[in-house]
Design a protein that fits this description.
heterodimer, A: mainly alpha, B: alpha/beta, 13-stranded parallel β-sheet, 11 helices
Chain lengths: 317, 650
């Protein structure tokens, strides 16, 4: 065991020394580069606990070869191994901006699996020169590519992509609508507020919950108005998650909307509204609690409200 | 301020329309279903949010329909578990085998393969009779038809589209995907990588032709054979118990054969056949058929997978010792069917690998009707199926199950493996031999005890299950076990009664890891659950792990990412319907209703306690709803059926 570890350390050190002392290697034919990458990659992507401390040096050694290794690594993106996939992404991220031209070129690759993984990597590098090429693949036939492309655009955070993000809210695949919600939140896309509120009732929880998070990042007044306008929605999730957001925002206007819901016939709706009011006014400065508790007779709704009060008081301590 | 006062006044002036309501439990709905729906609503979720698209990864040709259906709706695991429990009828193991055969349908498979049907002429082919007893000869004839005709022809039909080299691949290369070696822990990184690449090459090669295998004819033929053997043995047992025949009479009434007689032409005397009397007998070798009337017998059995054939062993009485001299023995179906039916005594089964209810491209059934038995084996043993069905049914006694890996209710690709233990306080141990070198220096892989396993990302896996109806049982394992699975599979434990003890280190007790499903259901008894991480209702990476304990005062202990924890878009649920529980966790941040925020949209963690006075070390609290600082998770501890506080007034 010790002998084999030593051999690996020695091999990494040898390759590394070779690379930094022998400039011609960097300009060498791809076959040489390929051989070097192939020799280090199994170590860089090793998962065994006994070799774990050798992984980072191996990743560094490959990244040190520069952008020329990007095409070799992109070709490896067909791997079936999740660990190898992450290793490729990590190396390319470490190479950074110089790898971007190779990656954007690979967005035209016929294999959709490679394209989605390239999108993922471009999002990690987050260089704005990739925005245009990424926008071009947001209509890709594979939903996985659309999902990753929108995710990458959100990570890059360039408002040029606003229109494709808004369009993606109508995608037939929940994962893509989720990506649109996340991206809209990341670039704080005000035009998406109504779509995000509508998405609170999405059939896919990923899209719903991502919309909650996105709305909390956007203009408070506009969000409250949009939620208030949707309180009559027949989709209970729009209203219930709307209450959750209003409780987090905690303004007078938000509480006003919530108060309109604590008298609902629907015990679940009352609970959502009351719990949100407790969240909005954790110290009960406005003395809403007594009235709410006094009028509520549903056993489990009362328990929800009391739990929220306990939780809030616990946070205050 | 004025606005706030007005709001309060309005509030007081408008008594709630719902005054007097109780949004509580309707007895028409199972408690756990109510709990899931109620907590989901509280968290802004639907129960149906727990479901996974079949195209998160490229679908393969080996996915089972039942796994695909349950991945689409994982909460259906609760019904599936109940149905599996009800699938057994006492003394009729063929019913459970037939039930499980149904679940071996591939995704989209509408027509199932059928066994070879022998025509009248083949059935009437004369066997020379050696014994005189009609019932016994009928049993032997039935067995001969299956062993000589139906099973080999069904295997031929199953593999008809494979070339000679592809058939050889099954028992030479493919099997390597299930074989571990203790010395692997000493390999260099290059050697491990090389080994990984070799196994990948086997996977690549297999997926090119594996879809051409139709396992159905072999398994269906085996189930038919089991049904007929059970029927014939039952008839013979009735005659024996009535006293109208005896073992001695049957044996002694055998024909006198001429000196130059070809024994292979006589039923019961063929090569590979043996009939034993009521005394203690010793059998050694590669047999097709053994019938033993009684006594404390010793079996030293072997099998050559390069020359596969059906095996039927029937032992009516005695404390027997069954020992493997090779792999693929003792209720092992390798490219055929292997049946071991033991009707009494405290037996000891000492096996190697692919044994003790192992179906490897076939059907393997070990049926033990009574006695305190001990089952020992290594790999793919004790209810293990690969392109087949492996089944142990033990109907009574205090049994011990001991194995290393891929065992004890283990389902690999297109396979189902089940232990169905009806009675007795049993002990299950899996692990301790093959080190988990990927994660630890001091823990061992189990991959057993209700475990489904697929080869990521090449082949979806199968269904592994333990159903244990009675007794205070102990389940011990290390990594991956106890109602758990990996890659498009299902792992399941259902334990009906008894104060049970579940110990597992990681990935267990209702845990799914990587697009897969795991469930542990324990109905009655005060149980103890212990584990480190990814335990007790945990789903990781588009997976669902569910743990349900319906009654008893239970104790749950875990370190992290457990007790209703979802990770990387997975969903984990811990549900305890009744009893005074104690919940302990080491890491409060990743447990008791927790969802990790991976891949933008998070995961789902639900913790549900529906009754009793409970103690918590963690996020939970008695009589309390909580939402954890996670995406998305929370819990509730409520009293589903609150005590009557009216003092009995009407």
């Amino acid at each position: 065991m010790i002998r084999s570890r030593s051999n690996v350390i020695l091999s990494i050190a040898t390759v590394f020394v070779l690379l930094i002392t022998s400039a011609p290697v960097l300009g060498a034919p791809n076959t040489t580069l390929q051989a070097v990458v192939d020799s280090l990659f199994p170590i860089a992507s090793s998962g065994e606990v006994m070799y774990r401390d050798l992984v980072e040096p191996a990743i560094d050694s490959i990244a040190a070869l520069g952008a020329d290794v990007a095409p070799i690594l992109i070709d490896k993106f067909t791997t079936k191994s999740a660990r190898e996939r992450h290793t490729i992404k990590n190396i390319l991220k470490r190479i950074g901006k110089p790898a971007v031209p190779h990656l954007t070129q690979a967005l035209r690759h016929p294999d959709g699996l490679i394209v989605s993984r390239v999108c993922w990597t471009l999002g990690e590098i987050a260089d704005s020169s990739a925005v245009g090429p990424l926008m071009d693949v947001t209509g890709h036939r594979r939903w996985q590519v659309r999902d990753e492309a929108l995710g990458a655009l959100g990570d890059i955070g360039d408002s040029q992509a606003a229109d494709v993000m808004l369009f993606a809210f109508t995608d037939t695949v929940g994962q893509v609508r989720k990506a649109a919600s996340v991206a809209a939140g990341k670039i704080r896309l005000a035009e998406a507020i109504e779509l995000l509120v509508h998405t609170l009732g999405d059939e896919f929880y990923g899209a719903r919950m991502s919309s909650v998070e996105a709305l909390l990042k956007l203009d408070t007044a506009a969000v409250i108005k949009a939620i208030a306008d949707s309180m009559g929605s027949v989709n209970p999730l729009v209203v219930n998650l709307g209450c959750l957001i209003l409780g987090e925002l905690g303004t007078d206007e938000a509480v006003e909307v919530l108060m309109s819901q604590v008298t609902s016939d629907d015990p679940a709706r009352r609970a959502h509204a009351a719990v949100a009011i407790v969240k909005a006014d954790p110290l009960d400065n406005c003395s809403y609690r007594e009235a709410i508790l006094a009028n509520e007779t549903d056993r489990l709704v009362l328990l929800k409200i009391k739990s929220a009060i306990y939780s809030t008081e616990n946070e205050q301590r | 301020m004025i606005k706030q006062i007005c709001l309060i006044i309005c509030l007081l002036a408008l008594p709630f329309a719902a005054t007097g309501q109780d949004s509580g439990y309707s007895p028409d709905v199972p408690a756990e279903q109510f709990g899931i729906s109620h907590l989901s609503e509280y968290l802004g979720l639907y129960p149906d949010d727990i479901g996974y698209r079949s195209d998160y990864t490229e679908p393969d040709s080996f996915r089972l329909q039942i796994v695909a259906d349950l991945m689409n709706r994982p909460l259906g695991m609760l019904d599936y578990t109940a149905e599996l429990k009800s699938g057994y009828v006492a003394a009729q193991p063929e019913i459970l085998a037939a039930y499980l055969f149904r679940d071996l349908a591939r995704k989209g498979q509408t027509v199932r393969g059928t066994p070879y049907r022998a025509d009248v002429a083949e059935i009437q082919r004369n066997y020379n009779l050696y014994f005189n007893d009609i019932a016994f000869n009928q049993l032997l004839t039935r067995a001969a038809i299956y062993l000589d005709l139906i099973l080999p022809r069904s295997t031929e039909s199953a593999l008809a589209n494979l070339s000679r080299s592809e058939r050889a691949f099954l028992t030479n290369e493919f099997i390597e995907l299930l074989v571990m070696r203790e010395e692997d822990e000493f390999l260099s990184v290059e050697a491990i990588d090389s080994l990984d690449k070799l196994e990948e090459s086997y996977c690549e090669a297999f997926v090119e032709f594996g879809y051409k295998i139709d396992k159905d004819p072999i398994i269906a033929a085996g189930v038919d054979c089991l049904k007929e053997m059970i029927l014939e043995v039952s008839g013979l047992q009735q005659l024996l118990s009535s006293g109208s025949v005896s073992a001695k009479k049957i044996i002694e009434s055998a024909a006198y054969l001429p000196d130059n007689a070809d024994l292979n032409a006589y039923l019961g005397r063929q090569s590979g056949w043996k009939i034993g009397g009521a005394g203690n007998d010793y059998y050694t070798g590669d047999y097709k058929f053994i019938f033993d009337f009684g006594g404390d017998d010793v079996y030293d059995l072997s099998f050559d997978p390069n020359n596969p054939h059906g095996v039927i062993i029937i032992d009516l009485e005695g404390n027997d010792s069954y020992r493997s001299q090779s792999d693929f023995t003792l209720g092992s179906g390798c490219l055929s069917a292997g049946l071991l039916l033991d009707y009494g005594g405290d037996d000891r089964y000492d096996a190697r690998s692919f044994s003790l209810g192992s179906g490897f491209f076939g059907l393997g059934v070990l049926y033990d009707a009574a006695g305190n038995d001990r089952y020992d084996g290594d790999t793919h043993v004790q209810g293990a199926g690969t392109f087949g069905l492996g089944l142990i049914i033990d109907e009574g006694g205090r049994d011990i199950y001991n194995a290393a890996v891929y065992s004890q209710g283990f389902g690999f690709v297109e396979g189902i493996g089940v232990i169905y233990d009806v009675d007795g306080s049993d002990s299950y141990y899996a692990g301790g031999k093959y080190k988990d070198i990927l994660r630890y220096e001091d823990h061992y892989l189990s991959l057993s005890q209700g475990f489904g396993y697929g080869l990521r990302p090449w082949m979806s896996g199968g269904v592994g299950a333990i159903v244990d109806l009675k007794g205070n049982d102990s389940y011990y394992a290390d990594i991956f076990a106890q109602g758990a699975s990996y890659w498009w599979s299902l792992g399941l434990i259902y334990d009906l009664t008894g104060n049970d003890n579940y110990q597992c280190f990681q990935y267990g007790q209702g845990c799914g890891t990587h697009m897969t499903l795991g469930i542990l259901v324990d109905d009655l008894g005060s149980d103890v659950y212990f584990g480190k991480g990814l335990m007790q209702g945990c789903g990781h990476d588009y997976s669902c792990g569910l743990m349900l304990d319906r009654a008893g005062n239970d104790t749950y202990t875990a370190y992290d990412l457990s007790q209703g924890a979802g990770s990387a878009n997975g969903a984990g649920l811990l549900i305890d319907n009744n009893g005074d529980e104690r919940y302990f966790v080491k890491n409060h941040k990743l447990t008791q209703g927790y969802g990790t925020p991976r891949r933008d949209f998070g995961s789902i963690g639900l913790f549900i306690d529906l009754g009793g006075t409970d103690q918590y070390d963690g996020n939970g609290r008695n009589d309390y709803y909580w939402r954890t600082n996670s995406r998305w998770g929370g819990g509730m501890d409520i009293e589903l059926n609150p005590p009557d506080t009216t003092g009995g007034e009407k």
